[in-house]
Amino acid sequence: MKTSELIASLSAAVEPVPPMAVARRIVPALAAGGVVAFALLLVWLGLRPLDIAVHTRAFWMKGGYTLTLALGALMLVAALSRPGRSSRWAWVFIGAALVFVFSMAGMQLARTPASERMTMWLGETWNLCPFRIAAFSAPFLVGLIIAMRRLAPTRLAEAGAAAGLLAGALGATTYELFCQESAAAFVATWYTLGIVACAGVGAIVGARLLRW
Amino acid sequence: MIKGLSGDGRAHAALLSEAASYLRGYFARRIGADAADLEDLVQETLLAIHLKRDTYDQSQLFTPWLYAIARYKLMDSFRRAGSRKTVPLDEADELFTTENPEEGAVRRDVGALLARLPARQRRLMEDVKITGLSMEEAAQKSGMSVTAVKVSVHRGMKRLQQEVSDEDL
């Protein structure tokens, strides 16, 4: 076919496109992922007693960390879902989240006697936490990949990693509704490990599945 | 582009033809002007522009968006090169109109960038860089000294480069 014919056929009936392409795809994907992840939490582990949790500082520390991370990752996803865009602000939020949790961890550890630091760091569930976070992030990642395939990411591995990071941070936020670990060092290590693993999976999966 | 987005078929066709000549130049520089799959690549990218047109953000410059899609399609074709047979072109004659950066969408981007400069500097930049006046002519026209014009144009270029890299490319 000649290029001029192609152009003529493409312009024959141009439908107007609604604005906010990214939000229209990403928001429903995250909402659906959230519903599935939350249902999984209820069926599998159940909620921690939230009326007590909301009075603990650790609950808000953990939420602040993972939600700030999620916000940064969301900006990355939005930018990388479109050709020719990137987002510096995303890295500000991601950096701030990491600085926050690691400085909290450092201060807490400094105040703790050396003999108890190991217990604090490992908590009771260190060997479960990263895997559970990965499990809860899976519905978010599936939703995001489906949504981003319909957008136009041009750097596939990076876009996939951003999706994985966002899914990981939201999976971790879901898991916080169960997990009673309260030490910042625990969160900084095992939560971060689970989230980073998700970003890695996202990068690998994204490079294959995000092609369009 | 914006008119095409709201459903104006003629504007959309104009945009696609303009993009086609731009893409031809872009791909020709990278895979050679007589590469067999040059026009396939152009058509594939045009189709992508059409299908993914809702991912263009109207508040942003158009060329980086187009360029990123073109780059992606080029990479994609390299990736598949091993497994795909190339089909010879049926129509190879009218292909080689070269890219013309003065055309609409690109000019609109240049205009948008220039609009961010102060009025006097913008006029100097237009005179020297677009109309093609010499520094002396521009100086005469604006009533400034030649040195002042040179400095202003130089600073303007620097500022524009800065602005473009700030666009988050």
Describe the fold and architecture.
The complex is a heterodimer of chains A (212) and B (169). With 212 residues, chain A is mainly alpha-helical. Chain A has nine helices and no strands. In chain A, α2 (21-44) packs across α8. The two termini of chain A are 21 Å apart. The mean pLDDT of chain A is 92. Chain B has helices at residues 2-5, 9-31, 38-51, 62-80, 104-114, 119-131, 135-142, 146-166. Chain B contains eight helices and no strands. The longest helix of chain B is centred in the first third of the chain and has 23 residues, at 9-31. Chain B starts with a helix and ends with a helix. Chain B is elongated and about 60 Å long. By secondary structure, chain B is an all-alpha fold. At the A-B interface, α1 of A face α2, α3 and α4 of B.
Write a concise synopsis of the structure shown:
The complex is a heterodimer of chains A (212) and B (169). Chain A has 212 residues and is an all-alpha fold. Chain A contains nine helices and no strands.
Structural class of chain B: mainly alpha
Measured by DSSP, the beta-strand proportion of chain B falls in under 5%
Q: Determine the strand fraction of chain A and express it as a percent band.
A: under 5%
Oligomer: heterodimer
Number of helices, where a helix is a run of at least 4 consecutive DSSP H or I residues of chain B? 8
Q: Can you tag this structure with a few keywords?
A:
heterodimer, A: 212 residues, mainly alpha, 9 helices, elongated, B: 169 residues, 8 helices
Q: How are the secondary structure elements laid out?
A:
The complex is a heterodimer of chains A (212) and B (169).
Chain A (H helix, E strand, L loop, with lengths): L2 H10 L8 H24 L5 H4 L3 H24 L7 H24 L2 H9 L6 H21 L6 H20 L8 H26 L3
Chain B lengths: L1 H4 L3 H23 L6 H14 L10 H19 L23 H11 L4 H13 L3 H8 L3 H21 L3
Helix pairs in contact in B: 2-3, 2-4, 3-4, 6-7, 6-8, 7-8
